[in-house]
Amino acid sequence: MSKAVRNLEPKIVWNHFADLNAVPRPSKKEERVIQFMVDFGKKLNLETFVDKVGNVIIKKPATKGLEDRKTVVLQSHLDMVHQKNSDTVFDFDKEGIKMLIEGDWVTADGTTLGADNGLGVAAIMAIFSSNDIEHPNLEALFTIDEETGMTGAMGLEGGILEGEILLNLDTEEDDEIGMGCAGGIDVTATRSYAQEDVSENATAFSITVKGLNGGHSGMDIIKELGNANKIMNRLLFDGFTNFGLQISEINGGSLRNAIPRESAAIVTVDIISKEAFLLETGLLINNIKGEFSTIEPNLTIDIQETTLPNKIMELGVQEGLLKSIYAAHNGVYRMSPDIKGLVETSNNIAKVIVKNGTIKIGCLTRSSSESNKLDLANSLKSAFELSGFDVDLSGEYPGWQPNVNSAILDVVSNLYETLHGEKADVAACHAGLECGILGQNYPEMDMVSFGPTIRGAHSPDEKASISSTQKFWKFLIEILKNIPKK
Prior knowledge:
Elements: H1 2-6, H2 11-21, H3 31-43, E1 47-50, E2 56-60, E3 72-77, E4 99-102, E5 105-108, H4 115-129, E6 138-143, H5 151-155, E7 165-168, E8 176-181, E9 183-192, E10 195-197, E11 202-210, H6 228-243, E12 246-253, E13 263-270, H7 274-291, E14 300-306, E15 311-313, H8 315-327, E16 331-335, E17 343-355, E18 358-367, H9 370-385, E19 390-397, H10 407-420, E20 425-429, H11 435-441, E21 446-449, E22 454-455, E23 463-465, H12 466-481
Parallel strand pairs: 3-6, 3-7, 7-21, 8-20
Antiparallel strand pairs: 1-2, 2-6, 4-5, 5-23, 9-18, 9-19, 10-15, 11-13, 11-14, 12-13, 12-17, 16-17, 17-18, 22-23
Helix pairs in contact: 2-4, 6-7, 6-8
Catalytic activity: Hydrolysis of dipeptides, preferentially hydrophobic dipeptides including prolyl amino acids
Protein name: Cytosol non-specific dipeptidase
Enzyme class: hydrolase
């Protein structure tokens, strides 16, 4: 499958991407990809080292004639989101990504592609391995764990990098130049519950929600896509309120930064309510599917009779669980009052797990406003604490405040207009880029972000545009030729 991808233009980029995608690289398990990058740098006889947290830094001297330009840091993250369709058989810890070409798009066979941020990594590798691309002094910064906490960026110490300009290659629209981004915080609610025996007069059902688009919980949150955890909660709440439904287990969502596409639950109802429950739930399913028919045409909600479970959740805790998820905000919370069309604050109810006496609910709250980020986080905390949950606020990272006086922003935006005859979309984004964190230890570093067009990041529908990658590559090469003098 990768062979056809290797023949795409620019071959130097796609070949490095194919090499990278052969290496498993989940967040917090980057040992193999770290070694892969170290081997890459050393094979080129370039200064290569790993910092104390696992970031890889490679340095390359300027080509002749550009020695007097400012040093540039090219930055991308090594880890990727590992998501697959429920019916896809794939071991992320052992297998390389199986890539496919569909028209102008490179995609994967039932899994995430890793273009986020693998194409950025591959482009940097292409620059460093080339002998005929003009560039100033370069430092490649390959960070780890961007997708699950940005601990690589947080752990990068000041003084390691010498660059005055940073080009972050992690934006997913090729006509966009990033100048700012949202910060984030994890809101995790947990509690235990007593398990009860299942009544002899009960019947059990499996309920599954699947077929949703999912996607990036920052960039795609504005699309108001379906959230499998919210939809499942709606079904369970209705069954509980009207028919005394009791929950045995729930498995909804997976990663904190992915809008949940699927949820599955095992529940029981009294056998005398069976027919009425199925009728009522069927009507609700039709209503929900109708509400989402335009934006979620592939949504399926199935309910099937199944084997009775051994245990169910006590009713008091169950009521609090369902009401707290109902009360917890999901989606856009506030639009930016300053930048038209930009989400300022949002929350993603990413994961709901109920099993063996333990409940865990994971949310990722984002905002470009530190005060509103904490306001929404406290709102969620309150909703869960009222139902007896312990709530932990963790993993907080800052946003990247826009610098309208950025010199490199002027260079990059003017060059885009010269190359393409139209202005780029210079904007802040609602995703969490590492620039804000890196700027804490490198406050004088001038930063912008750009990249090729990627759709469906963080989902098995992820795909990267071939023509856009060609556009991005030419743009990057031209930028490196036009870096300002020291």
